[in-house]
Amino acid sequence: MMHSSEQSKVSAQPTPSVVSDPLQAQRHGTVVTTEGQAEPYLRIENAYKQFGAFVALKGIYLDIYPGELVCLLGPSGCGKSTLLRIISGLDPQTSGRVIQAGQEVSSLPPSKRDFGIVFQSYALFPNLTAAQNIAYGLENVGRPKAQIAARVEELLTKVGLGQMGHKYPAQMSGGQQQRVALARALALSPGLLLLDEPLSALDAKVRVKLRSEIARLQKELGITTVMVTHDQEEAMAMADRIVVMNNGYLAQVGTAYEIYHQPNSPFVADFIGVMNFIPGQVTATDQIRCGDSYLQAPRNDVPLNQNAILAIRPEDIQVWGNKAPTGLLNGLKTVVEGLEFLGSSYQLTLHPAGIIEQPIWVEITAADALQFDLSIQSKLTIQLPPEKIRVFAAENP
Question: I need a surface site. Which of 58, 148, 199, 292 has the fewest CB within 10 A?
């Protein structure tokens, strides 16, 4: 469940700082910009969207800069597709403003806005060839035939379909159809490219290949791009910045590295990747009591004697086996309860004695696993490095 403290206004590319007052975050921003910072190409100001009694977006502020690829990421129903539709004008906001290239477009219909869009369903004309689909928008605005032909040929080449302009959608694979849809969206050289889960209908291998090609083409063209996705790996691989959304709010905005390694809430920490959560109580500004153990942690703002959640990634946990040094900081004795071979790595499910009821997940390379002679009920000593720990205040029940 998201709370109002997770609202945020994003005003620049640097890492947003965490603020405790949501209204201050909304009105004054959560980052410090540097001198000479480029003006945002796209600005969302205090956008609300209501469907009857349901509020889908709750005061969204977001700045997107020229040439950025920004991914809107979150669980189903979080508001990411609604926000994309507001940007495009397909579903106008209830209140708030949309500003593109310095011009307010809040009340303009989609036909008057400068964007190209690619949908999950491709939305190609089945009775037109690939080349004719790409040419459609150019013909509607009255471009000369020679110019249209040159532009279509250029785009077919850019998306890797140089010899397939004569084919109809039914004669093409899903990945090829999506390339045609992308070329069609780029045909009029829009200032903004919108991608609405463009890869989700494709199989895994095609999806990975096409996401790399889209990211490469986006950088080559320098086109400002907003992409909706539910795929964390896709967002982390493609985006300059990720906008994590939940319950109509912006939960956190940052680079993939920042979102993964510096989550600002348990929700973000849990949504991106795999995270261990260990409940405890703050006994000092840099110490958490978890069951019978006292663990050193980064200095944090959780008040003394208050309940807290210690969070750490499985791959950040150090495995020592039975050869742990004496006096190991944050060392825990555990028993192996689960063992999964994942090819290049193993995921271990460990039970730490005297700490918590739920298990701790640890990920180690297959090469490292060989030295421990792992099996169910093996005893391992692990270490939770303090610098890898995040501490959050426990939410009220």
Answer: 292
CA atoms within 13 A on the CB side of 254: 19
- Indicate the pairing of strand 249-254 with strand 103-104: unpaired
Cβ-contact 226, 56 below 8 angstroms: no
What span, in angstroms and rounded, lies between the C-alpha atoms of 28 and 39? Answer: 16
Least Cα distance to 269 among 281, 285, 280, 258 occurs for: 258
Spatial separation of the C-alpha atoms in residues 196 and 13, rounded to whole Å: 23
What pLDDT was estimated at residue 36? Answer: 55
Nearest to 183, CA basis, from 202, 205, 198: 198
The confidence score (pLDDT) of residue 12 equals 34
Residue 203: which residues within 8 A CB-CB, separation 6 or more?
174
Look at 207 and 5; give whichever has higher pLDDT.
207
Dist CA 347 CA 318 (whole Å): 13
DSSP assignment of 153-203, as one string? HHHHHHTT-TT-TT--GGGS-HHHHHHHHHHHHHTT--SEEEEESTTTTS-
Q: What is the Cα–Cα distance from 278 to 291, expressed in whole angstroms? A: 10
Q: What is the pLDDT of residue 201?
A: 84
